[in-house]
Design goal:
349 residues, eight-stranded parallel β-barrel, 11 helices
Length: 349
């Protein structure tokens, strides 16, 4: 699985980092020995998601359970909040200030030792965020796939959040490939820096044989002839897999934790070109599948990581950056191998 990168680009200063995107933070979900082996210096840890639900409005749709003090003190923590684009579509412009305050108050609960983590968007009034003992927090990140239609409201929320934070805490946001290509329409966020996301290139709910996690042809169509993005950028690379199932060539369910090895050895699946076909009625992960349903494994290889790296270089103009893998899961990391991950870091230096 080992491979070498070649590039004429000058070396950069690289910091090893990972995303932690699980719903529970506990000793059995955070392998500190593996963090040490990978020399991880920073963790982007998702604290909660914010979305819109019919009849309920905009609210957290999931929150991290656990104690963030489990994160080793030598690792910098970047609190991360995911907000759906629909939340901005459904929120009137006049309510963005309220949404901004509520996001801030919910974030604050994770760092106020006298309060439990919030399970709802709090309306209580707070002053600037005080990270208390978590003095190593230097950045928060907002993850949103905003669009031309929602840019004004999203950018206003980012400006509002900045006023709630200490001057020492920066704001970063995720940047998708379409936001790189169509930056004139979607705009450049008013923040300190961005995270270029080199994955989730295609829609996984659409029936096709291509890999929605990363498709080289599609990625090149977004990045070809693009100049460096006008923000300091970090880089996020994919390190995950999933199984997409289809019924009558239409999306049915997305399953996590089904590997290619398991699919190859499952008696209830048989290979059908680029897909696997259920050869009997089967219950899998509490979902009922019928004979004839299709399953597609999407994963990441060293070759994919190499291509991601090559395509990302021209877009990143800064000489110092964090390279972050999505996401920290010991099984996935060992499938790729820590050696390969370290080679990705080294190729930029």
């Amino acid at each position: 699985m080992l491979f070498l990168f070649k590039s004429s680009n000058r070396p950069k200063v690289i910091f090893e980092s990972f995303y932690f995107w699980k719903n529970t933070l506990a000793e059995n979900t955070l392998d500190t020995n593996l963090l040490n082996e990978l020399k991880v210096k920073k963790l982007y840890i998702k604290l909660f998601d914010i979305g819109w639900r019919e009849g309920e409005g905009v609210l957290p749709i999931s929150s991290l359970a656990g104690d963030i003090r489990l994160i080793p003190s030598y690792i910098e923590l970047v609190p991360t909040v995911f907000i759906t684009n629909e939340a901005f579509i459904k929120t009137p412009k006049s309510d963005i200030q309220i949404l901004s305050r509520n996001v801030f108050n919910s974030l604050k609960h994770y760092f106020d030792e006298s309060l439990p983590a919030s399970k709802s968007l709090s309306n209580e009034k707070q002053d600037k965020l005080d990270f208390n003992r978590f003095s190593k927090v230097k950045e928060i990140q907002i993850d949103c796939d905003w669009s031309e239609k929602t840019r004004e409201k999203y950018f206003q929320l980012l400006k509002n959040l900045k006023t709630f934070l200490p001057d020492s805490v920066k704001i970063s946001v995720t940047i998708r490939l379409h936001q790189v290509k169509y930056r004139a329409k979607t705009g450049v966020p008013p923040v300190d820096k961005g995270m270029l996301m080199m994955y989730n290139i295609l829609n996984p709910t659409e029936f096709n044989e291509r890999n929605s996690i990363f498709d080289e042809k599609e990625a090149r169509s977004y990045l070809k002839n693009q100049k460096a993005y006008p923000l300091t950028l970090d880089l996020a690379l994919p390190l995950f897999s999933w199984a997409i199932t289809y019924r009558h060539n239409k999306f049915f369910e997305l399953l996590n934790g089904v590997t290619r090895y398991e699919a190859d050895n499952a008696k209830w699946l048989e290979k059908n070109n680029r897909f696997y076909m259920f050869n009997r009625d089967t219950v899998l992960q509490n979902h009922y599948f019928r004979m004839g349903d299709l399953l597609k494994i999407e994963d990441v290889t060293p070759s994919v990581l190499r291509t991601c790296t090559e395509l990302a270089r021209p877009i990143i103009g800064n000489d110092t950056l964090n390279i972050s893998f999505f996401h920290f899961d010991s099984n996935l990391i060992h499938d790729i191998t820590p050696t390969v991950i370290q080679k990705v870091y080294k190729t930029w230096r």
